[in-house]
User: Fold these one by one.
Assistant:
Number 1:
Amino acid sequence: MGISEGLALVFLNTFPRIFLTRPAQTIEANAGLAWFAVALPLITLLIPVYMLLYVFQRNQGDIYAVTQQLLGKVGARAVSLVLITMFVSDAALLLRQFAENTLLTALPFMEFNNAISWYTVNAVILCYLGIECIARTAYIILPFGVASLGFVMAALTPFYDINLLGPWQGHGFGTAVRSGIAVSGINFGVLILFVLGPVLQNLRTIKRAAIFGLGGSTLLKALSIFVFTLTFGTKIALEKTIPFFEMARLVYLNRYIQRVESLFIMLWVIAGIMSIAIDIYIACYLLTRALNLSTPRPLIASLALLVTGIAMIPPDIASVIRLDTIVTVTLHNAGLYGIPLLLFAATVFKGRKKKSWTSA
Amino acid sequence: MLIMLKISTEAKEWCALIDNSIFIIYRYFKRLLLYQPPPQAAPFILEETPAEKPRPEEASDPHQEAGRAGLKEQHYELSSLLRQAYRITSLMEKAKAALTQKPDEASRLGLEAEFHRLEQQQQELTPLLLSYDSQQDRTSLGSAPLRPSLEENLHVVNRLYELPANKDLVVREITLPLRPPVPAVLLFIDGMVDSKLLNLAIMQPLLMMPPPQGIRNGTGLISHLRKEILPANQVVAGKTFTDLQDGINSGDTVLLIDGVDELLIIGSKGWEHRAVAKPTTEQSIRGSQMAFSENLRVNTALIRTMLRTSDLVTEMIKIGERSRVNCAVMYVKSIANASLVTEVKRRIGSIRTDYVDDIGLLEQFIEDHPKLPFPQTISTERPDRVSVHLAEGRVAIILEGNPFVLVVPVDMFALLHSAEDFSLKVPAGSFMRVLRVVGTLISTMLPAFYIAISYFHQEALPTELVLAIVGARGDVPFPAYFEVIVMEISFELIREASLRIPNILGSTIGIVGAIILGQAAVAAHIVSPIMVVIIAITGLASFTIPEYRFAFAVRSVRFGLLLLAAIAGLVGLSSGILLLITTLAYMKSFGMPYLSPISPKSTGGLDVFVRGAVFRQESRPDALNTKDPTRQPHISRRWTTAAPQEGDDQP
């Protein structure tokens, strides 16, 4: 895999929440500065990325191998366990929210169990085909996704009202910074590049994929929220549970091109399935490494079943949204900043001689 | 008296009637109850062979089986020894007769030569060799080496070709005019050789050749015949019965000589075959108008006429255990990746099957994903197309008796290219390609999209269109997906039927059938007019795909997407599209990703979705990893870099 595939993996794993309720939550927390709260983590996220790049410059292999070199087998397994929990929880939360939104927007008469199974089965098939295929597919789909978003945002131009952005400070600059950093854990997908490690050829590939993938995803999310605020305003935006769907719903070019929101269902269904599949595959991969197994394939179906089971635990969608925030603020943040910091500290402490990084 | 007589007559008649009835009933029951031999012979029943279902008594008695095999071996050994004994007796009688009369020099030499031959043959009749020969079955016998005895060799040939029952093989006995004369045999298959060539270039030189001086041993004779006597353009020596069979089965003539444990395969192919004609499935307005035929050598020559380089290598591989068919692997040595060539040869060479008579069968034996509907090779009948691909660094596979050539490896986008894309200018060529891509997308998704929208997402349609569709469908009692299925199947039936109907009528009946069927279906309220329009557009779009097998794959995918759309609307359709793209990303054609150069990203050489200017196509497709990635220099039109000079017209 190269930069394109790595970039697409990071983008597809960090972006899909834009199709869910997260933008509305961000606007609720930051009002007019919501876009800034989303864009800000791009800077903070570079810190763990560069820390990991420093670590990987001095140690060879994927994140498990590197951790094993620095912290020993027990440490490597503990770190893997944290990462597995992060990816599994992310998959479960996404699965539940996408299934609920499918019922809400596209298939109101479908059984909830069928909707959630639909996503699971698709994700499992993707996982069986392998991360390389998923990454390549992500890379093919990415331009269409970005172009579709661009189309929606451009088509909403007549509805833009600059006054809706005010007050531009929102709930205050400090609040935006705190809130932005607090939920920056949703971007932990950037760790995928380090989990896969040697598959991505070299550190230069990882670095570029991380920066472009994360940068593209974050900026597009910020732009979407900016346009959302510009179109609906802060007050109305709080009432919209699925902002992107509402934006697409507002598109009116002429009497023949209107109400195109159903066409965009295709976009977020594909993004959702891919993101869930990436999460499940990475969790399986880490489990395979931690248990010293030869292939992740036999684990895929069992883990997908586990994810589905977890996804069905919360009683309603409101609980899921609350839980999503809690998990992001705690577990995902801890994993995203804590693990790189730990590995960085261990590398500095051990003072290992710099080794050239080669692909496996 | 008369009355008495009358009564007596009536009584007799009654008795006769009763008697007759009783016997009829008796005979009926007798036929019913007692065994009767069947009125006709037992019908033929194709029973299982002993190999499939061993009989219990045979399976349970290995000693009996071994004993039978032992008897067979002994019979073979004794027969060989007996024939040798006859030959010795014959020689002794000849020697006796010669000694009684005063022998001249010629007869002495003859007897001496015959004695040497017998001596040589005697060495071959050791118990160990005889035992080995006798244990060989028909297949393994083929790989055995030739014997010096012509009689023994002919004996093996009889076993191999089931002579004299098999009438195809001609055994022409001749005597080579040597000193002394030597018996020989020409073997060929009637109908596969050129009679004129056989008579003039083989028989005549052999029968009329001057006796060579000082040549006695077999190798010398073979060499002499090959170099000085036979004028045929291809004369090859062989040493085994495999060589003999390959030669005869390929339409060549085989020469066996008594006392020589070698044979000569003399080129004499001359069977009837179709001439080089115009392409029938890949017609073009511009460009070459030649198509491959069934003759392998004609096909390789056609490619060579297009790609005139000594670097073009043609390697031959025999495929099939029973019918050994020639398969040519062609590549440009200085361009094609060596590991690709090795892999192609490895896959072809490792096929173990009775026979492969069709390039489609061969394709299924060697492709990466035979269970997926997407073609992983280019199949073409145009030599110009093969030449272009060879020059790009691909490998061509040609099978004897097939007018289609496979080119590997292939990416999906190459299947949307047509032969004359480069014969047209850039805008025209690119436009045609975009049109094909659009056609492919329509053909894949339009019915599924219609079903998804009309079932689950009506809000996506303008109100007027929804009303028009509802109005048109008002009288149709079936659901939309039933309509689609009915129309799709009808369309497939018409397409399939028009292929089977003779050429002159095929297209007419196809069009007439489609129109009548469509109108009748609408009139009968089985389908709505909008559905006819959708299926017609879909069908028309599918014809824009230049590759037949790819079009078939698209049709298969269409049905899958239709099902998903009927179940879950656009959610189902998007899942289907995602799985389709991932499957395509998963596929490989001879190690090359199927979606390259898009994914994984590589340099496509301005020849992917659209085509670039010919003078800007400087590099070969990156994914092929060729030995020489540069096709032409950065500035290929050098006339643009300098003004015309005086004397430019001088040679």
Number 2:
Amino acid sequence: MRQDLVIGMAGAGGDGVIAAGEALIAAAAIDGYHARMTKSFGSQIRGGESSFRLRMSTAPVLSLGGALDVAVALNWDDFLRFGAELPVGGRTTVIYDSKTGVATSQIPLTGITPAEVVAVPIDQMARDLVGNDRAKNTVVLGLLSGWFGLPAAAILSGLKKRFAAKGEETVKRNEDAFNAGVKYAQEHPLAKGSTLAPVAKTTAKRLIADGNTMCGAAAIVAGCRFFGGYPITPSTEIMQFLTKELFKYGGTVLQAEDEIAGVGAAIGASFAGVKAMTATSGPGMSLKSEMLGLATIAELPLVCVNVQRGGPSTGIPTKSEQSDLFQAVFSAHGDVVRPVLAPVSVADIFGITIEAFNIAEAYQTPVIVLSDGDIGQRKETVDPFNVDAFPIVERDRPAPDELAAYTRFKLTESGVSPISEPGMAGGNYLASGIEHTQSGAPTAAGSVHAEMTAKRSRKLDPLKKRKDLFQEYGRAGAPLALVSWGSVAGIAQEALTLAEREGLRVKLLVPRLLYPVAEEIYRAFFKSVQGGLIVEQSYQGQLWRLLRMFVNVPDGVEPFARPSAVPISPEELVTRLKHIAVELQRGRMPEAAPVE
Amino acid sequence: MQATLQAKDFKSDLKPIWCPGCGDFGVLSAIQRALAAIGRPPHEIAFVSGIGCSSRIPGYTTAYGFNTIHGRPLPIAQGIKLAKPELLVLAAGGDGDGFSIGGGHVAHVVRRNIDITYIVMDNQIYGLTKGQLSPTSPRGLKSVTSPYGSLEGPINPLLSVLAYGAGYVAQGTPADMAALAKLIEDGIRYPGFAFINVQSPCITYGSVDAQLKQQKAAMQDLRALGHDSSNKLGAYALAEEYGTKLYTGVFYRKPVAEPTMEGLAAERHAMLREKALPKSDILKLFAPA
């Protein structure tokens, strides 16, 4: 019995492919499975092609897995557009709509022979039962339920809810279409498919969230009461969610005229004393960088989320990437030290977003949350957790008796000086993007600039000790290492398990604080390490390069970096680790992968 | 409310960097006088500016000041007002700040009708960077970036802001500081976005009206001309003469002010408050169907 199932489905826009995926993940959560789902589209606004890839399992899901177990093609043209996202392998069961009329032997699968290819009159069944082809997705849900033991009751209750507004007759017809799919599956058993082990019903109900919405919810919990932003894929859901929810909490959302105005308004709100956020993706980050410098020198708290996509320029808006690390760390003129945090999953972005607000408030600085399109837009089951357990930090405001002789940018040992805000009598000061004295007066004095630059930098030093912002897995003294961040960290975590199974001694470090670089934490981690991989979805290996600026990364540790077009798989990480291990055993430095 | 505030209560200890004789001194005095007349204490005022000579102005007042980056005072001022509507929010900058680099923001603050008073010190030249062409420089002007004379015509700030739909549009000059103070005061009292263009001469790189005296001679008071400030078409006609005539006074004041964005947001807060989940229940938003 399978305990893990990877399903991919593609069809034309309007076929309801995404709706089918969402129904499946909802049903999985209700029945106690862990699941993760990504959706992918062509670049058309309407029509075009769309797909989902879903992995469900009785164990926590850390990646989308390798080749599909089940591939559903509503038509071949659209399915084949997702070659990299929906890889068919030798163990794949392929189900396709017989209407497409493609004979089994002609499926252009570039030399791969799937385990089984099944033609089903999906379109015909939908027409017969519902009267049009709109119910093809419901038929497919029935087929999947019948063949793979997916929870029928949960899927049916989801369908009922979805079509309730359209009247009982529509609900009934869709139930019929679903049941017809189930029946068809029962009458035509698969030769090689087998069912998924049902999970014990005692499991607590899981939640389903995407990273962007989770980020928005965390912002509300953190106390954010102002959001300024501009729509940009793949971050827009953050603004959309807050537009709906934040007003309920007395907060305001401004859909600004551009990215600059969006972050500017958030900076204004923060100056006024209100926790504020902006969210964007790569091109928007480029536009916001001058404002981030302003928030740094004016020492104003601000959370800026970058849901990364493929770049540069407009790049690939719909594909996730991790190539904005350099930008997050360095994109401002002048000496700027700016905290950069990265979540590793949908659940994790909740804590990371709250932490970003806490750091922003505690140190009076902009903080970048480096999310990515994968975390931002994928759906994932999340185990319920206690929201109240997250501590919430407020900025250090001057006490009433301190206001008599108030100095806004007072040079303190920690570098943090109490911050007043309009409305606070006696706290009046001039905030500015221009260098200023302790009282806020503009100055061009080099000595003051040096002092102030040091102040702004040293106040972030305590972050480098934050071990809680790092996750470590595997054997402490292992000679082989994996380092990975963001959405790819789960893949590295799976690779660790696979590698250990193969007898390799490996450990994994997942930094959720990317900057400032926690030098001591890396130093301790690399102590036992002779070789390994720093894994990320970029071309340059940006984390590898960044770490080498601050830490003695062992020579045997090489970047495993690839832009987003082909997802990184745990298996290929293990293959490379094995190669490195062999080279190390021969006492030679491993041959380094070429890096541009 | 403290009725006893005086202009000097809004005067900070910082010494202006402006050249002696700069028109901006008069604008500063007018603002201080207007604020005294309004009577809100300095700590309830947020004064935001961009970059340029004129944008140093918040630091010369005792209000909470924010000297931001080039062209962006309006977005920041809007964030302040939306976050804390109880504050009195002023924005100021030069013609380059407001109509070149920051020109894209003006239309949007107007359409949102956020209650901010925006004062542009318009001198038709870039002063702080030593005499380059500005978006309001007249065609043919010789400057360090137009040595043979400018090939471009000026933007018309008054006409632009009127066309965007602002509820209060006025123009003044520091040559008549008392009248300017009154215009600023009226702008602050206007319940919505107010724009005051100030013909503030640059005496160092001065282009057209280099001297306050000359400027004074050219001034024509709109009310004395019989202009009815509720007449928008009349306002358009007069604003058309920007660059040729120096009209002072209120071009347009909307007789019935429209709702402000912060006012509408407050209504929305009141309407939706009941629907807010307690913080500990926020994960309910993610329950599967």
